Amino acid sequence: MLKANAIETSMSRKKQSVGQRGLQARQSALNKRAPKCRPPHLNSYMRILLFSGKGGVGKTSVAAATAVHLAEAGKRTLVMSVDPAHSLADSFDLGGALFHGNTSEPTQIANRLFIQEVNINHEIKQYWTDISAYVTSVLRTTGLSGVEAEEMAIFPGMEELSAMMYVNKYRKSDEFEILILDCAPTAESLRFISLPTALDWYMKHIFHLERGILKTVRPLAKHLTPVELPPDSYFRNIQGLFEKLEGVDAVLEEPAITSVRLVTNAEKMVLRETQRAFVYFSLHGLVVDGIVVNRLIPEEVADRFFEKWRRSQAKTLAEIEEYFAPVPVRRIPMFCEEVLGYDRLREMAQKVYEPSEDPAAVTRTSTPFSFVREGDHYEVQLDFPFAEKGEIGLFRKEDELVVEIGTIRRHIGLPTTMTGLAPAKARLTGRKLRVEMREPI
Ligand SMILES: Nc1ncnc2c1ncn2[C@@H]1O[C@H](COP(=O)(O)OP(=O)(O)OP(=O)(O)O)[C@@H](O)[C@H]1O
Ligand SMILES: [Mg+2]
Q: 360 partner at 20 to 30 Å CA-CA among 31, 205, 253, 292?
């Protein structure tokens, strides 16, 4: 274990932090890039609550329950499913026959409560016409039939990109006060939030180059290749989509607007994925301000079969509390039947939130830690309001950095770029503990 005795209290230079920036800096970036994000007649921003977590843990149920609670508290709320395998309408038990995919646009299901399940077939007709027409025509030249070519012209990511355009659309309008995003399991959620950055990179580095080259070679290529080259309308379509996303990345990274809630179960394997998700959301600059542990076996279950389960859940729950502190951990019991329909969802909400509690309140404006590249080494930076010289212990355990302060222990999952590194030195600058991570000697 490395004792952080040699704590330096030097003034730090201004550095670019990966996961944590000052609220002020965020605000000015946001205002510059997204001037319309505050609707003039609303006192606050539209809040975005993003629910993510491992497959099957209860994301959709908790997202829907939160929406029920907020709508009943008087907020105009939209729950949007970003998961291509939608189950939002099922969660509200709306019945397929009733809706026939009509939830592709916001659909009111109760007072102030709307749901939307982004549907790619619906979106293609609205936003992807030129791109899809071009890709279909290329696929047809390979011998595929019309319908097959149309089906194959739907690429992974198109639906998520469409959902992201809606996020940007709603935050500029005053249609909803709360937008709840019911995400696909962790990996896809991360892909979803990194879409604007990836597209921005493509537009800056590839798009104009590609468009320029094609302009030059098109007359010649017409005679040489059997495959039609993308027409300019294709590029205009891409440009148009890109413009629809402008500023949304700043909105997602603004903790006064967007909060991530991770849903988990009290099981070791699920916890591991939740820890990784926490690290990666933080790396992307999003603030996780709540952990929801779902399906805890209730005390009143006296069955011997469940006794062992309950003990192991209690142990994992203690680990969860320790790992994510100071981020609050909420608990939901396992219900005796599926959480299906409005009333059951309301029942679930009553287990998660106090009656007068506002789940959309902004409670955290920074990530508890961030990762920074500093010249020849990496740094893990932690908010450290109470630490005093000499009382901090640091060591690495598998892919975690463990920080001990008196009797408190904090576990920080390390991103893959840092997993081979060990803490070499720590210094306290202001209220921040900076741990240098270097190759072990
Ligand atoms: N606390 C609970 N008690 C009993 N059943 C629950 C509880 N939470 C969720 N369920 C049920 O578990 C099933 C899966 O829940 P849900 O669809 O919310 O999970 P999910 O994380 O969104 O899944 P996916 O990763 O497939 O999107 C549903 O049938 C739901 O009703
Ligand atoms: Mg789901």
A: 31
